[in-house]
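2024-03-11 09:14:02 INFO worker-7 job=invfold-0412 stage=load source=structure_tokens
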């Protein structure tokens, strides 16, 4: 399987294809024009999915195709340029599953000699894959199948004989078919959404270890180093709240603004928010600040709570976990949130879907739709921290009520008494992240229009749009010159969302972290474009890079349409059209007519039919996607 490295700027120029059913592998060498047109990352991943995944495939069957793909900048020394994407058909939404992660696995895959991996079929028995300097080994893994993620990490690194082997894996929740089981690399970096862990386990693959000695070529290294030098002189991470307090830095501000989701999105303000904040974590249970490959921001948390058995091995809770296992469940104990985070990590569970499922069950319990007979006597009320942790175990093992919640809140509500659906917070059957669209109106579009179901990483949130023209995060190159109020839901907000969604979509294609570049990080758009050009050797522009995101977005839409999802699925939970329960925005709610008009205007901006939501023929031809007609 080994071959000559034919790499060019940023890319290795090789994709590893593995037919798990037969155990055979081959190496594909895509043309440079294919990389330039689709850009790697999510763009190239969708190119493979649309060409090779049969319409209507069972997401947990052997016909599902799973693509792991890096971007042009993955593995280069630019801060945040460590991302890779995993894509497949989702067992949770039955549409697209696409999730990005940072950490170390993506850069190491390139070092091992490949830009991406395409998995098809199903292995006859449990295995893990080991990729080292262009060579593939398929290793029996029956003894690892039900072990915790921590034990599997240790075992594969030990068996590889190299402590720098990077391990991407699913967990025992995935081997039991939990529909929102996730993937983790190095136990701290997550492809969290859409059930990708369950897809990998359904292929009888427990993990993929990678180790290599190469690195991607940079065409103009002198120019790239000049950009890095400029960044080092202008950024002081010891003054950065993202470095000091992580993503949970925002808890106090969100709570003060009344947009900190509480008690299953009934309320927008939580009385225990200060106990859950990033600064509180820094002062109490934090023992270290981790990072991803080549990133100076270092926003990852490492925590310890000895009395609860919490160690730094699994890192520490990010904002979404603090919201999902904390305020959403009415729990103000940072120590128990850390315990819940580690427990999810051991099972390989998406903390967002897990927390939302537990909060859903708590509200059902308090309304009598779930009883003590269902919980085995467990008092599943808001604020019960021990019950929250116990339910994570039951979900991970698919035991009792946990077996029902492992299906996701949409399916669970269908099997509970009438009225439960009102409490099921999801879009396209994926659980809603921990941000409040009644106080950040552009987020309503992000949730409804994300191709993967409710997703908070579709575009920068509304408070950042309010800083346009007033901060160092200059968005003028995008055509955004003036701030737009977070409560605005006019055409100005739709336009801003459309442009910013393209920006973050472009980051997903080229392999860039959203927290390292504008508007949330220190890298500015001219620097990013210049670095991309230096890496690839292409005389490129921001316009060409944004076209990568436009092309990927059209492919997402076609993929979901092919799987039966359309405009009727671009909806929000009814709760967001009902009044918020407390805080400074008490009584605030989305307006259905405003939302519908914003959604249709967005379709038109994308070049999609206003009624069907499909890219028009002209749009597909413009994007060189005529093969999708």
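2024-03-11 09:14:09 INFO worker-7 stage=emit residues=629
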């Amino acid at each position: 399987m080994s071959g000559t490295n034919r790499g060019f700027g940023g890319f290795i120029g090789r994709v590893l294809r593995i037919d798990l059913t037969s155990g055979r592998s081959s190496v594909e060498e895509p043309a440079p024009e294919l990389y330039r047109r689709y850009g790697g990352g999510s763009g190239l991943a969708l190119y493979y999915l649309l060409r090779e995944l049969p319409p209507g495939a069972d997401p947990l069957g052997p016909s599902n195709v799973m693509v792991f793909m890096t971007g042009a900048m993955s593995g280069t020394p630019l801060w945040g340029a460590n991302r890779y994407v995993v894509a497949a058909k989702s067992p949770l939404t039955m549409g697209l599953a696409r999730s990005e992660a940072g950490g170390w696995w993506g850069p190491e895959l390139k070092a091992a000699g490949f830009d991406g991996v395409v998995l098809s079929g199903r292995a006859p028995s449990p295995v893990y894959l080991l990729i080292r300097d262009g060579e593939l080994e398929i290793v029996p893994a029956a003894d690892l199948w039900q072990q915790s993620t921590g034990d599997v990490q240790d075992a594969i690194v030990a068996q590889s004989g190299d402590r720098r082997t990077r391990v991407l894996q699913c967990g025992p929740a995935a081997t039991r078919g939990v529909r929102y089981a996730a993937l983790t690399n190095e136990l701290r970096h997550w492809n969290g959404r859409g059930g990708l862990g369950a897809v990998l386990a359904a292929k009888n693959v427990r993990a993929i270890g990678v180790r290599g000695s190469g690195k991607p070529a940079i065409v103009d290294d002198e120019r790239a180093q000049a950009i890095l030098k400029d960044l080092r002189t202008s950024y002081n991470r010891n003054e950065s709240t993202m470095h000091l307090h992580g993503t949970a830095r925002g808890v106090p501000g969100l709570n003060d603004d009344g947009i900190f989701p509480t008690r299953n999105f009934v309320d927008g303000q939580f009385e225990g928010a200060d106990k859950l904040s990033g600064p509180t974590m820094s002062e109490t249970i934090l023992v270290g600040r981790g990072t991803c490959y080549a990133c100076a921001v270092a926003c990852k948390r490492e925590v310890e709570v000895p009395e609860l058995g919490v160690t730094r091995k699994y890192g520490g809770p990010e904002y979404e976990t603090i919201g999902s296992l904390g305020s959403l469940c009415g729990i103000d104990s940072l120590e128990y949130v850390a315990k819940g985070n580690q427990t999810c990590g051991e099972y390989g569970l998406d903390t967002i879907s897990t927390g939302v499922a537990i909060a859903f069950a708590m509200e059902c319990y308090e309304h009598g739709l779930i009883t003590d007979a269902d919980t085995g006597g467990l008092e599943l009320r808001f604020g019960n921290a021990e019950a929250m942790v116990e339910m994570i175990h039951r979900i991970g093992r698919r035991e009792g009520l946990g077996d029902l919640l492992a299906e996701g809140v949409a399916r669970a509500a269908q099997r509970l008494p009438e009225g439960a659906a009102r409490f099921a917070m999801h879009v396209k059957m994926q659980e809603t992240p921990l941000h409040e669209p009644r106080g950040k109106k552009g987020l309503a579009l992000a949730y409804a229009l994300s191709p993967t179901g409710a997703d908070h990483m579709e575009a920068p949130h509304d408070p950042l749009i309010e800083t346009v023209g007033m901060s160092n995060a200059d968005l003028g190159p995008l055509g955004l010159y003036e701030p737009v109020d977070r409560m605005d839901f006019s055409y100005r907000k739709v336009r801003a969302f459309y442009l910013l969604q393209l920006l973050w979509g472009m980051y997903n294609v080229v392999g860039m972290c959203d927290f390292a570049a504008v508007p949330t990080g220190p890298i500015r758009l001219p620097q990013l474009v210049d670095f991309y050009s230096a890496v690839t050797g292409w005389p490129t522009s921001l316009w060409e890079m944004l076209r990568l995101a436009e092309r990927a977005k059209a492919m997402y839409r076609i993929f979901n349409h092919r799987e039966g999802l359309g405009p009727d699925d671009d909806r929000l939970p009814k709760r967001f059209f009902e009044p918020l329960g407390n805080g400074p925005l008490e009584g605030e709610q989305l307006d259905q007519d405003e939302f519908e008009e914003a959604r249709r205007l967005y379709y038109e901006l994308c070049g999609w039919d206003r009624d069907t939501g499909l890219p028009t023929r002209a749009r597909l031809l413009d994007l060189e996607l005529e093969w999708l007609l």
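2024-03-11 09:14:09 INFO worker-7 stage=report msg="The radius of gyration is 23 Å."
2024-03-11 09:14:10 INFO worker-7 job finished
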